[in-house]
Amino acid sequence: MSRYEIEVWSKNGVLLGDIRHLCSGVKWTMQRNAHETLEFEMDLYEYEQYIEKIGVIANPFSFMDILSTDIRVKREGKYLFGANIIKFGYSPDGASVKLTVSCTGYLNYLKDQYLTIDYDNAWQGDILWGVIEQVQAKTGSNFGIKKGNVAQGMKRDRHFTKKNVKDFIQQMTNVIKGPDIKFDADKTFHSYEALGNYRPDIRLVYPENVDSFTFERRGDVLFNYIQGFGSGNGDDAVQASSQDYHSMQQFYRREKVVTYNSVERVSTLQENVNGVLQATKDPRELPSFTVHDGILDLNDVGVGDTVYAELGGFKSLSHIKGYYRIEKIECSVDNNDAETVDITFDDINIDNIVAQQEEG
Hints:
Elements: E1 4-10, E2 15-18, E3 23-31, E4 37-43, H1 44-53, E5 69-75, E6 78-93, E7 96-105, E8 114-123, H2 124-136, E9 146-150, E10 155-164, H3 165-174, E11 180-183, E12 188-192, E13 198-206, E14 212-218, E15 225-229, E16 239-243, H4 245-251, E17 255-259, H5 266-280, E18 284-291, E19 306-311, E20 321-333, E21 339-345, H6 350-359
Parallel strand pairs: 9-12, 13-19, 15-17
Antiparallel strand pairs: 1-2, 1-5, 3-4, 3-20, 4-7, 5-6, 6-7, 8-10, 11-12, 14-18, 15-16, 18-21, 19-20, 20-21
Helix pairs in contact: 5-6
């Protein structure tokens, strides 16, 4: 029995078939608070022969087509995610033609949707599900998204005109105490206070069970003098600064200007710039690991989980040992269902930090 199943589903929620036996070059990604991706290839002759055998003769696009067909990925009997076909690519391949199928996750249903959003003192869970309900109430926009477990979180005010819905939801995940979100393969929407679990039982150690890694000690995003501006114009604007002399002594002075249009109090602004300084005054050091088949059970560990990671064997890398949160999983699956898995750990983005402070 194949480890993977690649199921074709109609827009009406009907299972049309499993095409795993036709697929090669399967690649998928899952990333926290972002859309999934899926890509695979098929021999066009073999594909057309298959759909003819199951009764699809006149129009091959009635079985599978862009935008109107979903693919659900199942691993060892458990659904990982679902995605919508966005592109067919055709290219010569010897005597036949290669068909490349590209898909993106259900969050991208909302990337071409715009709404006027008005919420005062509303639970953030109600806001998230409310905008999805607004979208699906529009003519031609009922994607079949269902409400699952939606964490209420904290109360917020949100007011926008013609706001892109995908951008809005992702921005909500970036604010202080913002939620994590997830779509199940059957289009059930969930939000969480924090996605994932603490997994001290999972240990990824190079060179023991990690095949390869990438690691950068970066200074291009190091800042040790932060100048903050709040509400107001010119010299009338609220201002505060924060600096780290030890970092300056080691790495020279590195300045960053941050702006918070909604901050009116100096004390709040000072807290914000102090927070930016703490996040950026030291070199950024985060590894990414590659592991071979059998090291991780992807039905058991996922995005948001916190696992132990360590780089050994060299003095320059020996300080990389501790617990890191998984931000992204990229998986390549060969024709025998063997997996090569790339793990990207959580990264720090200064623009996200400022957005969190501004909107939180």
